[in-house]
Design goal:
- Two copies of one chain form a homodimer.
- Chain A is an alpha+beta fold and 478 residues long.
- Chain A contains 15 helices and 23 strands.
- In chain A, the strands form five sheets. Chain A has an eleven-stranded mixed beta sheet with strand order 3-7-8-14-11-10-9-22-23-21-20, sandwiched between helices. Chain A has a five-stranded mixed beta sheet with strand order 16-15-17-18-19, sandwiched between helices. In chain A, strands 4-6-5 form a three-stranded antiparallel beta sheet.
- In chain A, β20, α14 and β21 form a beta-alpha-beta unit.
- In chain A, α1 runs parallel beside α11 and α3 packs across α7.
- Chain A starts with a helix and ends with a strand.
- The relative contact order of chain A is 0.12.
Chain lengths: 478, 478
């Protein structure tokens, strides 16, 4: 009964994917609405996913020599305006502070939408010599962009993210680091979040305001729309010149350093939900799940069952897993539905008969597969099953991606493919903005990226018919 | 030479304590000024101290059942105004957002100076039944208070902190939890930061805006001024009534829950500097030092020295210490001064003669004590020395505290004691605001706390001569 009731509360994804997504965010208690439109509250279960993402990624950053700092949340308008392309892109989305206490401010401050300008203002003070380079900084913080529309995790006016900012002595080193950080993100998505990615470069139209080049990882959601999951930008020395940042090189000359920035946000959680979730709710990748294993005693009023469940829980905790035992008086059906909704990767069931036989049952969230194991094998079997959950999730998502990349040789064909199947449509492209705009107008698709893995599909751009050297991915994106 | 130069750069604390403090913040590269008055940049070394504080405290919070969340950074003015005392206290210090993009907002938003109102707005939605209680939330974030004056770590317009907010079914439970969290802070200060504290209750004048009772831990700085290091507040059901938060109790009645909040901030880092620092710079408590041990090879050009130093470093890292090896070509004098400035608790020196004799030298930052140890004892000896550093630091700070608590029996005596020696002046107190104001006016001291450990010094208040039951601590505070 309880189970039936619970499952009924979620809209089927086949009926209305957007509503299914919102339902999962609410029912799994990831997020709540605040009293300001477009700003959300990260509830404990949602925030715990972010903490796990932070922990793993932060360790990866530190491995490549990145140090954490914290910059101000406010940017004076004059500072924001120092780099022309940058301010043009962000000014329309800024929230402005105009009063401090009861006094009107002499200059208004925007709440950071991103912090390139603040980092540059600081770099100017602390970079003197080539010995100070590379300087690799990162901060975990929230940023604010006054967008018109919003959706949980995918588009918030305020969202949590990390932004890395680095300065290098040479353009080559900076470019290399830009790609290195994209690969850190790509590996993280695939190996930790079980989300396969496509790596590539953004077009000039889609690149970050003020960047020379933007690299991206693009993921495929369950509804065959694209999600930009992380970006890494190479700035050349544009900001360094605008902010007058120089260092003394080995020839004793004052020169400008070369810059990168790179970021991922809580949008990744939206990606996890839409890549792995199903009609029973969340399905969480084991490596970032707040609870990896839930222990459910069956017929817990029977003698010895609760004690045995407690023992299993403690053994799993001692083995390093994140574990919860639910010995509440809710029904087994309710509990199963609840932890399915919350996407807990592995369920351990143990009842009186299991215990008699010295065994228990492991149930995988992603495919419902049950495995009966001997109690003495618990730790090893749990680790094995969690690895199988990760692999199964990755495999399914990879299949969804691979089966939804289509080739097109004309604008009409691209449009027809997108309407029929969604996904990425790959074509050749001449490199002109005009053709990019035409694709958007005719087929509703934006360019997703020029993949690093190139294929030669044709000699010409299918939109204008001119010669084309590059293959590009198009798609409808979140 | 290098050492002389380095040490000269800091003002002696006996000459100008305030300038010494600022010098340490800058030269140890903890902090930098931003382009906005009163807002500081947390540099890698300063932020790493905060990360260590976070890691230890967060684990303590989780032990008492606290969960992390993240609330919006903006508070609509109407929400801030719901609790009368609260808004009166904070409105004069709010920074106000009045524009979103190019549009004037219908209602202005303040950047959170603290988040009671936001938590209450959320609690209203998620608390239904006594089964939902207690609800124990915390967030790590930055807050903004538009203060007139500022000093690194001690008073920022924007600063990093944590704010815990909990709701309980009964007043008793909430009061108990308020004290429990104060004890978490007190134990943390003493056992982790080596900062002895005085625990007590704030007077009505000094309590948090909107609280029924505020508990505090007060520390004694090296210049004998007081620092309020952490506070824990009991709210009763005042906010709950103002925000209409109710739950169904076990008798099926709708009643208001009882509330607490508690916080510490990066002000603790200011406390660490002013409690432990000396004329050579920072002295960091081993448990939160970003680098606990620095390994310095002596005569590193001699064969085998660098390799041996590398081996020592790796052994210490494998034993779980945070370690740095400095094999740069700077002089030994420069290196010693540099890591003294940065407050690294333990220095390992190893030169050719040490290696011949199968030994190395451990030097404690806090008292300069040198210990020659056998190489095979390295890990055990390092752990022992770090423990001695902690104990030595705590003991010295405790002595400074104990020797600067004075008793007074008249306003004149209190004033004379404060002028002569600084520190805490303890007197009896009738409980009247008028006497508190008189002490401030006549002796320049505010009330620090009514200590939990009470003594009976007199029968009357030394200010008004009326009967007095309570002993109070007065002091000049940061």
């Amino acid at each position: 009964m309880a189970k039936e009731k619970k499952v009924e509360q979620i809209t089927d994804m086949e009926v209305d994917f957007a509503q299914w997504f919102t339902d999962v965010c609410k029912k799994a208690q990831l997020i709540d609405y605040s009293s300001i439109k477009g700003i959300f509250i990260y509830r404990p279960y949602g925030y715990a996913i972010w903490e796990n993402i932070q922990r793993v990624l932060d360790a990866e950053f530190k491995k490549v020599g990145v140090e954490n700092v914290y910059m101000p949340m406010l940017i004076p308008e004059s500072l924001l305006q120092k780099e022309k392309d940058h301010v043009e892109g962000f000014a329309p989305e800024c929230a402005w502070v105009t009063m401090g206490g009861s006094e009107e401010l002499e200059e208004r401050y925007c709440i950071r939408p991103t912090s390139e300008t603040l980092f540059c203002d600081h770099f100017k003070n602390v970079i003197q010599s080539h010995r100070d380079l590379p300087m690799k900084y990162n901060q975990w913080c929230s940023v604010l962009r006054w967008e018109k529309t919003s959706r949980p995790f995918l588009r918030h006016r305020e969202f949590l993210w990390q932004e890395g900012h680095t300065m290098h002595a040479t353009a080559e080193e900076a470019k290399e680091f830009t790609e290195q950080m994209l690969n850190v993100y790509a590996d993280f998505c695939e190996n930790v979040l079980a989300m396969p990615v496509t790596r590539g470069q953004k077009t000039d139209k889609e690149k970050f305001n003020g960047a020379e080049a933007t690299y991206t990882i693009e993921c495929m959601m369950h509804d065959h729309k694209a999600l930009q999951a992380g970006t890494s930008h190479y700035f050349g020395d544009g900001f360094a010149k605008a902010f007058d940042i120089t260092f003394t090189d080995q020839n004793n000359q004052r020169v400008n350093p070369h810059q990168t920035s790179w970021g991922v946000s809580t949008r990744l959680i939206g990606g996890i939900i839409m890549t792995h979730g199903d009609n029973n709710g969340l399905v969480l990748p084991p490596k970032i799940a707040p609870v990896q294993i839930v222990v459910l005693p069956v017929a817990q009023h029977k003698p010895g069952v609760l004690e045995a469940a407690e023992t299993l829980k403690n053994r799993l905790i001692n083995a390093g897993f994140r574990v919860k035992l639910d010995d509440s008086d809710n029904s087994m059906g309710w509990k199963c539905a609840e932890y399915e909704m919350k996407g807990v990767p592995l369920r351990v069931e143990c009842g009186p008969r299991d215990l008699e036989n010295g065994q228990c049952v492991l149930v995988r969230r992603n495919d419902g597969e049950k495995t009966v194991i001997k109690l003495e094998d618990l730790e090893r079997a749990a680790a094995e099953q969690l690895e199988l959950v990760h692999q199964g999730m990755f495999h399914k998502a990879k299949q969804n991606l691979d089966e939804h990349i289509f080739e097109a040789h004309s604008l009409e064909e691209a449009k027809a493919v997108q309407e029929r199947s969604g996904g990425f449509v790959k074509t050749m492209w001449c490199g002109e903005l005009e053709c990019e705009l035409k694709m958007k107008e005719a087929a509703g698709m934006s360019s997703r990226c020029i993949p690093f893995d190139q294929e030669h599909l044709d000699d010409v751009c299918p939109i204008c018919g001119k010669s084309a050297q590059k293959m590009i991915y198009w798609g409808v994106a979140y």
